[in-house]
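Problem 12. The chain below contains 219 residues. Write out its predicted structure in token notation.
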Amino acid sequence: MHGVHNPTVCGLTAILRAKAMTNSPIINYASNREWSSSEMLTYNVMGAIANSDVPIATDRCILSPLTEADFCELTPLLTNADVRRYLGGVRPVEDSFHNMRESIATANNYPFVVRLCGTTELLGLVTIAPHHEPTDMEISYMFLPEHWGKGYAQEAMKAVLNFCEQKLNLNRVVSETQTANHRSCRLLETLGYCAESKIERFGAKQTIYAYQFRDGVAI
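Solution.
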């Protein structure tokens, strides 16, 4: 379901929802500044503001907490063979829905649906959750192929990194990707991650990238 919302209606909804959930200002985590009134009018509330007290926004993207109302819309992402190529292949969608329900219900999981700012167009999904090595939190991500190569993943990930440091008070995060997934490796390296170790998991070679925060923001 794609389309453009009336920005004034979206803005009024955003302001009401933000006021109802928190007294904090809406922050653009891509640039660490408070939203202007005009930017607030482009904010499109797609779900309950959960897991955090302010929404995550970039210049082009809105990251809203995942809710069950998003599940059907996420089906093309979850069942896309290109998206799932380095994630163990396409799985039954009900299995994915089950995992997402568990993620929503888990206190230290933060799944976010990524949409194009001011529209309902789905870009992808970014999740902050404990890594297989529970001492670390991991950021994982999936984006629809039609949005690859446009900088959306990098933009959303940078904002999520800042969120992890500023709101979750993390000193570091990791992201694990198949070593053969060169596009994902380039993204992480561009963001400032460093390859920390290589392991065999899920029948494939994986590279674990680590991101250390510096001076209070993701760089």
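Discussion. Residues 1-26, 30-53 have pLDDT under 50 and may be disordered. Students who got a different answer should revisit the alignment rule from Section 12.3.
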